[in-house]
Predict the 3D structure of the following.
Amino acid sequence: MPALPRAATRPSLVALAAALVLAGAHAQQAAPQPSAEEAKKKAQQLETVVVSAGKRNEAAHRLPYNVTAIGEQQLRDEGITDLKKLIQASPAIEAPPNSARFTDSVTVRGLNISSVSANNIEWFARSTLSTYLDDTALPMVGIRIKDIARVETLLGPQGTLYGGGALGGTIRYITNKPQLGKFLGRVSTDFFKVTGGGLSNDTDLMINAPLGEKFALRISLANLNDKGYTDRFAGKPPTLTSNITPKPDASKVLYEDDDWYKARTARAQLLWQPTNNLELRLAHTWQDGTAHGTSGGQLTPASGSPARYTAPLVWDKQTVLSPYPEFTDRDISLTSLDLDWRLPGLGRLHSSTSTYKDTRIGQADYLGTGSFFYGDLGYSRYRLGSSSWSGNTAYITYDNRNKGWMHETRLVSEPGVVSWIVGVYFSDQEKSNQFSEWLPTLPTRSARADEGYMENLASQYKETAIYGEATWKPTDKLALTAGARLFSFKDDATTQVEDYAFDLVTGTIKNNEKESGKSYFKLNASYQLSEDFLTYATFSQGFRRGGANGFRGVGGKDVNPNVRGYESDSTDNIEVGTKGYLMDRQLYLQANVYRVTWKDPQTYFSQDIDGFPVWGTTNGPDARSEGLEFQARWKVIPAVELAMASTYTRGEWDDTKEVCLYANNSECRTYAKGGKLGGSAPWKHTLRARWSGDFLDHSVYASLGARYVGVKASDRGDDPADRPFEYKSYTTWNLSAGIGKGAWDFNASISNLLNNRELVSFQGTSAVASRTGLRGIYLAPRTFSFGATYRF
């Protein structure tokens, strides 16, 4: 029997807030008032953005690489509550805007070989972006952005700053820390409604409480109840002739607003500061959620490209075909212990030890693929349109589990003529990605009735690294930096396949990869053109681990040893840029050009056994990506600030390589020089105008933003002549405004102001497209939001 999602009942955080809020008053001593001329000058200047990306709290414009930050207030103003929304607001990072239940491939600086689509199987998601919660690397980020001080984005490899390394870039969620001697809190609630959907709510609570003089506790809770906007049609559509029985209720054909999402998030931090120079923080983060359904519209069956992507809709852009309910239940827990110890005259010692668990269990419909595998290639009674049609359709279940522990200790020197960072890093991570195919009444040798196929990709990865960098300032304007990361790793991978229906691809493949003394380096030079403006050049390298495939010998042909597993890949990044303030700090500019050489890039590769695919990965030829990044902020007048950012990138194979599946050099695939990597729009732009001021003794603001994404190839091309389907360019507009006085703030916003519903992704294969039609995934409809925040 198909699984059912968790119960949707969630406790009310508003009621919890009312129970926890305590009365408290704190007197604040007034600071000396600046002169009128100083105040006027400061009001005309842009604020300085402070980040800890370089392991010290420093002004972002003084760091000689591409780093940006979004503060807590801007995150709230723009409604950025998770990684998907953060990516949508960034011109430098891309991912298909699929439903919450999918794990997406994230692209940085054009480093992508994955299809721009949605896939139920997590294994297909390949990211060149690393994510951190404070100092803990997260293998598959899913934690919502709540009680976050800022989000820092670093572009380019960062292996000499972070123990976990980074292939293309890094995003860091910097949480708000407990504060000693202060009782304070915040309650926020937002109501939002997507056009055609239900009224949704997102509520969060934060309390900071002192526990004596040396201890403080900070607790944040959040509850999301997204009502969804896409309907699920579970019966026979007008495009098919075979009758279909809806699940779970055979008498119910239409499930309205089926793509709902509910999540609860909690974080508790305990701070102990025994001396002014020493503090320890124990933190636990937990999230539980159910992402239900799939956003999109059902396309009519069609074959070939671009016909299968441009086929007419069966109903509309907010109705999908799915006889079985689809959902993902996800549990995330993360516990960390951090030590910060200031060593006068030497620097600062930081140590972080963390453990994590991330579990994704779910179910998805398999109507078209099941008809192909078990009907066309097996039994006619399971083939759509067959005269012997049984009425039974397929579905899949998946169980993805990640767990592990990490430790990192680093010593950061005091700033000076010579400054340095040195650190050690250990990790032990286990992963299991399992999925099964089910078809009622299917003849099977599985002990579990109706199970036709099972696959499990499991691994245990251990890594030890030492890393660091040193900066020498021979003059007060010139700085030279050199860094290195030396590491060893061991990866034990197992691929288990059980073909219970036909026994064509059954088997277990094990692969062991290990390497010692591997090293990557960084070189950087920067020159301070003025107190607030610098130019820089950098060379840095990144790394990503390899793994094992489940390919097997067939018909007397042995598998090529080179494709039994796939090796780690790496990047060499060369970047030249300039950044800083001009016009008496009224204008901020940042511009850089880069070229990334991608060595042995991991790309998808498959084996076909009598029509049944065995999915895998291989190393393609070297590739390259090059482009430019530009951003600017301008304080036009004290009340008006303009911000814009633009990126350009292009990536392609930089060499030609033939990869053969079998040892006799048969079933080969050629990746040819000049083939486009795809998956990333060449041009992307963002623009934002914000006005803020006072009105009738209230602080008010209004903001208008736009985002442009250029034409994007839906997949890579393995030959210069290949022309994958392209998504059209589009522009979205967002409008927001707010008003506040004292402890209260109110805000309202409209996302996708002009209701642009452009196609941005899809779900399904060519076999699915010809039988049931693809699912088109579109920009989310216009969304209205209203929120309130109370601080105490």
About this structure: Residues 228 and 260 are 4 Å apart (CA to CA). The chain is about 5% helix and 55% strand. Residues 7-31 have pLDDT under 50 and may be disordered.
